[in-house]
Amino acid sequence: MTETTEAALSNLSHEERRFPPSEEFAANANVKADIYAEAAKDRPAFWAKQAERLTWSKKWDQVLDWSNPPFAKWFVGGQLNVAYNCLDRHVEAGLGDRVAYYFEGEPGDTRTITYQQLTDMVCQAANTLEELGVKTGDRVAIYMPMIPETIVAMLACARIGAPHTVVFGGFSADALGTRIDDCQAKIVITADGGYRRGAASALKPAVDEALSTRPEVTTVLVVKRTGQDIGWTDGRDLWWHDTVEKASASHKPEAFDSEHPLYVMYTSGTTGKPKGILHTSGGYLLGCSYTQWEVFDLKAETDVYWTAADIGWVTGHSYIVYGPLSNATTSVMYEGTPDTPHKGRWWEIIDKYKVTTLYCAPTTIRTFMKWGKEVPEKYSLDTLKLIGSVGEPINPEAYIWYRDNIGHDKAPVVDTWWQTETGSLMISPLPGVTAGKPGAAMTALPGIAADVVDAAGDSVPNGGGGYLVITEPWPSMLRTIWGDDARYKETYWSKFPGVYFAGDGAKKDEDGDIWLLGRVDDVMNISGHRLSTTEIESALVSNPKVAEAAVVGASDETTGQAVVAFVILRAEAGDGGEHIVKELRDHVAKQIGAIAKPRQIMVVTELPKTRSGKIMRRLLVDVAENRPVGDVTTLADSGVMDAIRTGMETNSGADD
Length: 656
Ligand code: WT7
Description:
By secondary structure, the protein is of the alpha/beta class. It has a domain at 523-650: ANL, C-terminal domain (GMP Synthetase, Chain A, domain 3, 2-Layer Sandwich). Strands 5-4-17-16-18-19-20 form a seven-stranded mixed β-sheet, sandwiched between helices. It has a five-stranded parallel β-sheet with strand order 7-6-8-11-12, sandwiched between helices. The longest helix is centred in the N-terminal third of the chain and has 17 residues, at 115-131. Bound molecules: 5'-O-[(S)-butoxy(hydroxy)phosphoryl]adenosine. 5'-O-[(S)-butoxy(hydroxy)phosphoryl]adenosine binds next to α13, β20, β23, β24 and β26.
């Protein structure tokens, strides 16, 4: 009898069901239950042991320097080259012919790239960057579609010690520009465009627009992906195929300090200005490498691993690029959207490449649920042995659907909690050890110390809820916010002195397992991507027609949360008909990117505020979620809420 029928007979709710690993899975798993105790006994010693999986040019003198918290140094005195660890050492070990990536372009074009080929490509790109004057420590901005050259560009930067900052291709010219400013990138690597939703989608025009006011960027390296017409600035723009592809494929990797900056990844915070999260070399690579092997139970000789995320987010950095390559994994890389040219595209890819491991976001799983199980049923998913989830809490219904219809009730689901800041997985089941609970991320991984605390910072008992904190430093932790140590301390280490505050609410169940409850700050989670309410409010008020704006995240069946904006218009804007709603939605897309476009904009005449003038977002969330409005006793003018409700009925933005 399968577990599914067993559960059906016993009438358990989705949330009450438990999924222990099969005996066979447990027996063959990379890590066993005793790992937790081993790690807890001496955490730095545990990490020092795991760090042997990397190749160090010079061994460290000290595992962890935590003498100046919250500024951690891991593997002090150690030296390594991240690209060498991801490439050359595998080739030297005789794995040059192993496939690093099966690339599947959205239009159906494919490329198979071996470790030898990838090493050569990265060496060519490293030589080119050096010829263009990029030096160790210089920042390189990467604004690319999901194509192998994006990975090549990142690794070439790593190889020469030039930190990269990858800006998601869906971000606007403005968003790209502010990130270039913040980290003072002097070169941009881009492409003419990429394929999305069945069409060529341009990237280069956004680079041109961003650079029109930024003459400091002297070089733009352009990959030809779509062949679409693009603007060209002589003396600044260079084709990748005229430079990189003509360069020498021999390049000697230099060893850098373990704490040498590897990359900066921008993420939304509670203010309008994104934070540049800095990751360094040794500890970060260890975190990605070890957790991919541990949690995805990687068998590098036989697995075909697929993280279906964009490289523009941390998931792509850690689990498409650095984790998989450091472990000599064979990965799949897919350029486009799941429904192009048909809704079975992902399952067709899994069938075709015999994918063993799939890692994706709950929002996508819920979309697949909507499309129906008949779609994946048409393909063979038999090779899948483990499936993962990341980005937001996975609701028990989606977990069970995923497990039944994709994992065929045999592949364990790993719900992995982590953040751009944490660099690698932090809270997750171990698939060979943990009995999974739909909806729970379970416990901190070996070597990680997480807790749930109350407002006073005291650990809550089992059954209690509060704030998620990490109580000990870990190797892949962020080192600071680029150029802003004060904000780093203030954001993460001040709410509860001495421990890292993640910004998430969480509860411990009766067994002490952790359930994530979503953000507790003004940060929204839209399709697993972080967006700040303040950032979108700033974008709205930068439109001359807007006097005031308040943005909230309202729960959404597919995307988890959706952006809902309330705006007060200036008199000259007129009455606020449909055209202004469209104009403002487009304005936000232009300022930040399409992902930030409000689902709804409600034109109102007043916003609910406390007597001290603070906007009461909680009430706006009630309105946006169509619930009766909560306690309004602290509201300066309680008639405001009725006015907003009336406004809402007439001003919903059309969904596109
Ligand atoms: C925030 C981090 C980590 C890569 C993707 C997002 C939420 C992430 C889970 C999960 C519940 C989750 C949290 C976190 N989150 N994974 N498994 N269960 N919530 O990275 O953009 O840095 O966002 O995503 O709220 O703080 P990010």
